[in-house]
Amino acid sequence: MADKEANIYIVDVGSSTAECHNGRMESDLDYGMKYVWEKIGLALQASRKGLGLGVIALRHDETRNDLENGEGYENIAVLKDLGPIEMGHLKDLQKKIVPSSTDSGDAISAMILAVHMIDNFTRLKTGKLGKYKRKIFLVTDGQGPMDGNDLDSLATKVNELEIELVVVGIDFDDLEYGFKEEDKPSHKRSNEKILKVLVNSCKDGQFATMAEVLESLAEPVVKVPRPYCNYRGRLSLGDYKKYADTAAYIDVERYFKTHQAKPPGASSFVNKTSVSNGEANGQDTEMTDAPDLSAVKSAITYRISDPSAPGGKKDINREELSKAYYYGSTAVPINASEENVTKLETVQSFEIIGFIHNDKYERYLNMGECNITVAQSVNDKARMALSSLIYALYELDSYAVARIVTKDGKDPQLLVMAPFIENDMEGLLDVPLPFAEDVRIHSFPPLDRVITTSGAIMKKHRNLPNDDLVKSMSDYVDSMDLSTFGKDEDGQPTEYMTIEETYAPGLHRINQAIRTRAVQPDKPVEDPPEILVKWSHPPPELAKNAASKLQKLVEVADVKKVADKVRGKRTRDQIKPLSGLDVNSLLNSQKPRAARKITMENSIPDFKQLLEATVSSSEILELVTQMAKIIYKMVADTPIGGSFDMVTANMRVLRSQMMDLEMPEIYNDFIQSFKQRLVAGELFENEFASNKRELWFAVKSKRLGLIDKEVSEHSDISKEEATQFYVLSTELPTRAK
């Protein structure tokens, strides 16, 4: 269970907050509320019942609080009592938090009220303080009146309740951050001093200027989960049940050390106004925060073919289904009563089965997330035994190999366990090992030598890098080194980006978009923070410094730009005669361009030769039109029961030539027109359904349909469309005799 929290935000809404300062185009209130809305958005996104949040308006037009009868609590209004935050509260706060028309209201009194509210909220019925994280946030421009005579008693109460006090000032001076407001009013300077004294008197006090706080919001908030124990039992070395004198076991607990953080999933909803008749189903899930939406529920129906049922389909219940496994192309059913035969009967266990030297282990064998095994906290004997094992592995530079079954009936896993010693923490880190079936064995030719067909080994070859290229590449790699490119607080070289600063861009980008849409629906989602995309490109300064090394590498490697592909030009090399003469050009030069026609008797060679001599897309289209007419003529001349081999041969050549020319749309237009004319009965002089079926069967069997995206990247036809194209939806008899 996550820690309970009680957070109160004191927002200064005095009339002075409606002004704009320091060149900003937004009011001081809007500027400061960026921080508050972000924090409230994070609380909403966490959706924790134990997270209590309250909001107090300082220098408000109204007085509305539990201490209003006392002196000094005027113009302080509680906009939201301490408790869970919901979308309805957020929308209500957005309407109420606006600049007021007064400058009256004491910030110190507002903090006393916040302490009073937290005390009442977090104190148990027994009179003791509950286990809460308590925080008070004050967001102010420092322009209102402030009584600093009773700061010590306030600080004492804050420390007594273990409250963290955070004061965020709009345009407050902060020398450490490097900000100082010019021409600051004297009363604001005095108020800053009072607040600094109060913060310094608190054990957990923080004082910051708004610019620094807003800058820090760019760094994603990482959720720190509570430890989750996935195994609690014995870690054994040997069979202690059979060999009690020689085997040993240690009582341990195993926790996740790393676990993938997944982004929130999206659910489907429907607008109630789009439902027919404007009525929502009574079974729909009502959305209290979005009354115009209804959750979509999915349902699965199972049907089988049944000629006697209406529509030829019969609905069956899920309980009537049985599992089946494919054995080759045959389905082998296994009844529910026999499902246990497919499962390995295992019992919970954690056993060390051997040890290996750490230099014998390859890192690519890591198969999953890391866990840590520690001794049971209340078992001193187990802690001593596990510590002995950890130090033995550490001193011998060894790893342990173990087999684990986390629960009865679970599949076993093999683990490699490494000693982990850090400060006062000792444990065994483990990652899953692959089984034999998990390992992929690939053979690749070596990069540092060439092995000829005769078995000779060549160290120098045109496909191998020479010494100059190796040196140039080494220099370039050194110039792009990130390990010392960063700067620490003292300006000394340090790592450019540590693993602690490496955040999952997708996860935090989705959270940022959800938060923005929820809190400020009319505001566009801002670009992702720089820290999220830091790894998406090299540092500009580093790339600039390495430019000379890169240029030298390009020159030594003789890198040349590859010409862009030109559609309508062949991609494969043409066969050249030994004489070196261009036979096609010699033959084509003898023919006048206007007289170049494809003949029925020699259609395929004519089409290929004439296609070689084309110089424009219009000429290609003209030749395809001629070829299509010849194909239609061949179909019409085919007798009943005759062969369509010549037809499909011409279609195959037309298809392959258009693919070579990277113009698949021309063939796709032809084959679509071909099918339409076939279905309409326009290809045969006499209407014979058997000829239609035989012809389409020949086209389908030789895969002469549409050219899809997987065959040619220039096609706009999907694989599903190409597959569906082969279906001939006509009322024709079958081929069976």
> In the CATH classification, which architecture of the largest domain applies?
3-Layer(aba) Sandwich
Report the count of strand segments. Answer: 23
| Regions with little confidence, pLDDT below 50 for 5+ residues | 276-284, 590-595, 731-737
CATH topology of the largest domain: Rossmann fold
**Category by helix and strand content:** alpha+beta
What percentage of amino acids are in beta strands? 15-25%
Distance between the termini: 73 Å
Cα Rg: 39 Å
Q: Tell me the name of the CATH class of the largest domain.
A: Alpha Beta
Count of all domains:
4
Judging from the principal axes of the Cα atoms, what is the shape?
extended
Q: Specify the biggest β-sheet.
A: 7 strands, mixed, barrel
Helix content: 25-40%
Domain Ku: 313-450
Pfam families: Ku, Ku_N, Ku_PK_bind
Keywords: ATP-binding, Chromosome, DNA damage, DNA recombination, DNA repair, DNA-binding, Helicase, Hydrolase, Nucleotide-binding, Nucleus, Telomere
GO cellular component, one term: Ku70:Ku80 complex
Descriptive overview:
This protein has 737 residues and is of the alpha+beta class. It folds into four domains: 213 residues, von Willebrand factor, type A domain (Rossmann fold); 184 residues, Ku70, Chain: A, Domain 2 (Beta Barrel), CATH 2.40.290; 89 residues, Ku70, Chain: A, domain 4 (Orthogonal Bundle); 143 residues, Serine Threonine Protein Phosphatase 5, Tetratricopeptide repeat, CATH 1.25.40. The chain contains 18 helices and 23 strands. Strands 7-8-16-19-18-17-15 form a seven-stranded mixed beta barrel. Strands 3-2-1-4-5-6 form a six-stranded mixed beta sheet, sandwiched between helices. Strands 9-10 form a two-stranded antiparallel sheet. α1 packs across α9 and α13 packs antiparallel against α14. The C terminus is likely disordered.
